[in-house]
C-alpha cells in the first residue's frame, strides 16, 4: 500500500518536473523571439536606445560582440545554451550581469509578494466568515465590499493610502525604506484586490458546503455553528481559493511594477519598468524568466496542497 | 412511557401570501423499542416531519405544535444550544445517500466519532477505540483500516453502515432513518435492515421514513401514510399493507409491481382501457419461434477497463438475444456489468471480444459511419432524463432532435406533439424546460424522445429507479402499452427484482460480469438454479401477500 503510494509520488514528481521544464523552455523561447520582433536595431538598443546616435563602427562592434550578425536561429541556440549555464547575459544599461541584478532585486519583491498573499488570505477569511449565511442585506454588503475591493486599481489605492496614512496621520512612511513600517502600505495596496477576489470565491463555496447533505448530518450529530464552519465547511471553501492563489501571485508580480514605482522601492517590478523604458533586453528577459519560474513553482505547490486537502483527487490521477 | 410524542404538528415555509403549508396537523408517538414508519411520495412532508423533530425544519420555517416532546424535552421551546445537546446524543439521524452525507474531506473515523467528541468526555484515544468497535458492530469488515480511509474509498454499503455507526455512536434513544437503504443493492439493503431491526430490539425507538413498502414491512410496527402534508391513513403495518382504509393507501400498495403478472396494469384506469389483456396478434403473445431472427443479439461479449494489473473485467463472456416484441430483463447488483452490457448493445463501447448483431447485420466492430443510419433503430432511456439533455433546451427541442431530418419547423412541432401524446403528456409541455417538469414527466419525455426515432429496440437502464412508486407504476404501464402497440423489443436493465419480474419475458441474471442464469422469467423466479440467484431472491424484503 505505502510502497505503491511512494511510487505514485515519485511518478508525480517526475511528471511535474518534466512539465515545469517544458513551460520554462517555452517561455524562454517566446521571450527571445518577441524581443527580436520589436522594431529597431538591437545593436542600437545595446548602445543606449534609438537616441544614442552611435557611430556605424561602434554599432558593428556591438553586433559582433552580441552575435547580432549571426542568423536568428544561431542566436537562439546560443541564448538557450547560455541559459542552461544560468548565464542571462549583461545588462545594456547597467553593464552588470543580469543574474547579479536579479539576485539584488528578487528578495525585496518576494518579501512584498509573500506578505501580500498572506495578508490577502487573512482578510479573505475574515470577510468570508463574517458574511456567510447572513441576512440578504448583509450578503449584499459583503458582495459590494468584495467586488469593489477586487476592482480597485493599485495606483489609486496606493495614492489614497499615502494621503491618509502618511500625509495626514503620518503612521507610515510614504517611501518604502528598508524598515518593516515601510512595508505596510505597499503590502496592503497589493493585498486588497486579491483579498476581495478570494473572499468572493470562498464565500460562494462556503455557502454551498454549509447547505450540503454532510453539513445536515453534522448538525444532526449536535455540531455547533462554529464547529460546522471550522471542522467541515472551511476546507471545502479553501479549495477553489487555493487553486486561484498561484494565479494571484502572478497578478502580484504585475502589481509590484506599479507599487514599487509609487513607493520608490527597489525590486523586480521597478527593474522591469526601467529595463523596458530603455529597451534593456537582457534584463527584461531575465525578469520574465524569473516570473515564469516562480509561477510554475507556485502552481506546483498549490497543486500539491490541493491534493493534500482533498483526498478524492489523490496523487495517482494525472 | 413514550419516547417521542408529536401532537398536531404543522410546519409551513414563507410568510404572508407566500406561506406554504408543508406539514399539517400530524400526530403520532413512538415508544422505546418501537418502529413507526412514515410512507409517502416526494413532497408529502415526511422528511420535513422528521427534520422538525431534530429542530432542523430549515430556514424560514414556522413550526407549530400542541406537543413536540422528545424524551421529556419540549423540542419546540428549546434554544439552539440546548437542541445541539440533544442532537446526536438523545436522537440520531441516518440520512439517505451516504456518498454526500459524509464529509468527503474528512476520514470516516472522524465522522463516526463526532457524536462522542461532542457529547462525551472521552480522550482521543478512547474515541478511536470506540469508533473501531462501532464500525465492527455495524458489520464493517477491517474497521481499523476503514476508520482511517475517506468516504470515497468505501463502497455504498460500507458508507451507509458508517453513517449508521455515526448515528448510533452516542447510543441515542431515538433513531430517525430517512430512506436509509434507497440507493443500495438488495443484498446490502438486507444487511442494513437487519442492523436496524437489532437496534430496535435493543429498545431504541425508530422513526423510519421511506417510500419503499417492502422496507417498511420488514421493520415497522405501525405505519403512517402521508400525502400533501397530512396523515391520511395509519394503522398497524399489516393493515396498511393490506390496503388500509384510504383509497390512496391502496394505490400506493398496488403501485409496487411485486407479484403483479406481466401485461397487467398496475394503476387502475378508466373503464375503456381497464386492465387490458394482451391483444391477440401482439407479438409478445406469440413467443418468437425458434427460427426467428433476433432483433439484437450478442455473442461472447468481453470488455475490460483499465490496464495491466488494475484491469477489471466488466463483462466476461456474455450472450444475449432479444427477439422482436419481447422484454429481456437484465438484473444484477451494481458492479455486475449490466450497464456495460447496455452500452455494448447500444454500440457506445466496442467489445474487446465477441460481436453484436442488429437485425442480423454487424453492429459492433464496424465504423461509426456504417452504424449512423441504423442508430435510430436502437433507442435508449436512462435513469435520469434531465442529465442526458441540454438543460437550456425546451421539451420540443429535446424530442425534435431525435426526429429524422428534412422536416419543416411546423412538421417537427407536430411530430413532437404526437410523440408527447404517445406518452400521455399534454402538448402544452412542448415549450417547457425539462428541468421544470416532475420526475415522472421527465421520464416520459425521455421515452418520447427515444420513440420519436421509431426504434425497434429500447435499452432501458433503470428507467423507474428514481421515481416514486405510483409514478413509476404509471411509467411501467406506459412502457407495456407501447410495447404491445408498436411491437417494440426492450432490454430492461434494473436492480429491482419486482420491476424485472413484472416487465420481462425472459431474465438474465448477471454477477461479476457473467450471466449466471437465464431463462423464462417465472422459471427463474420460482425455481432458480444458480446459487447466486437464490441468494438475490432471498434478500428481497418480503411483505405479507396482499
UniProtKB/TrEMBL annotation, chain B:
Protein name, per record: ABC transporter ATP-binding protein
Signal peptide (residue range): none
GO biological process, alphabetically ordered: peptide transport; transmembrane transport
GO molecular function annotation: ATP binding; ATP hydrolysis activity
Family: Belongs to the ABC transporter superfamily.
Pfam families per UniProt: ABC_tran, oligo_HPY
Matching InterPro entries: AAA+_ATPase, ABC_transp_ATP-bind, ABC_transporter-like_ATP-bd, ABC_transporter-like_CS, Oligopep_ABC_C, P-loop_NTPase
Alphabetically ordered keywords of this record: ATP-binding, Nucleotide-binding, Transport
Occurrences of domain ABC transporter (ranges): 4-253, 296-537
Species this chain originates from: Labedella populi
Alphabetized PROSITE patterns for the sequence: ABC_TRANSPORTER_1, ABC_TRANSPORTER_2
Domain of life: Bacteria
